[in-house]
Amino acid sequence: MVGSQRYYRTAIYGYHEVEEALEGEIELEIAVEKSEHVTERQFSSFAEVYVPVRAKDGTVIGVLEVYSSAASLEKELRMLQIQILLISLLGSVLVSLTAAYLLRKFIR
Q1: Are 85 and 91 in contact (CB under 8 A)?
Q2: Alpha-carbon torsion 35, 39, 43, 47, what sign?
Q3: Alpha-carbon torsion angle 92, 83, 28, 34, nearest 10
Q4: 51 beta partners
Q5: What's the pLDDT tens digit per position in 10-66?
Q6: How far apart are CA 32 and CA 41, in angstroms?
Q7: What is the pTM of this model?
Q8: Residue 91 burial class via C-beta count within 10 angstroms: exposed 0-12, middle 13-18, buried 19 and up
Q9: Of 11, 18, 20, 61, which residue has the fewest beta carbons closer than 10 angstroms?
Q10: CA quadruple 13, 49, 80, 43: dihedral positive or negative?
């Protein structure tokens, strides 16, 4: 956990996810193996979540970084891609059949 903006500026400068979390935003990144990920190498890909930690008065006092396997998310995305492909194919077939029907009707 990053404890203060001063520490952030000196220790992990350049990590935009942490910077966004320090500004109060929850950041999510789907990552493939990076050089800094030593303990997460068991996953082919994973979700990095950066959550701002707030004091009682609402000010951001730190950032919590959490890693989770992205396998279920990848599976869901694959299913959505297949659904989009099938809907697109079905739509193309319907447009083609409608065009063929109208063309036959117009020619007669």
Answers
A1: no
A2: negative
A3: -90
A4: 64
A5: 345 557 777 787 888 888 777 665 555 555 555 567 778 888 888 889 888 888 888
A6: 9
A7: 0.49
A8: exposed
A9: 11
A10: positive
Amino acid occupying residue 95: V
**pLDDT tier, 101 (very low <50, low <70, confident <90, very high otherwise):** very high
Q: Tell the residue number behind the tokens 């992205």, with chain if given.
A: 70
Residue 75, classed as helix, strand or coil, is helix
CA distances (Å), 32 to each of 8, 35, 46, 47, 71, in order? 23, 10, 7, 9, 12
28 in Cβ contact with 44 (< 8 Å): no
**27-32 sheet: strands from edge to edge:** 27-32, 45-54, 60-69
Pairwise CA distance, residues 15 & 27, whole Å:
11
Cβ-based neighbour number of residue 79 at 10 Å: 10
How many C-beta atoms lie closer than 10 Å to residue 52's C-beta? 20
Q: How many residues in total does the chain contain?
A: 108
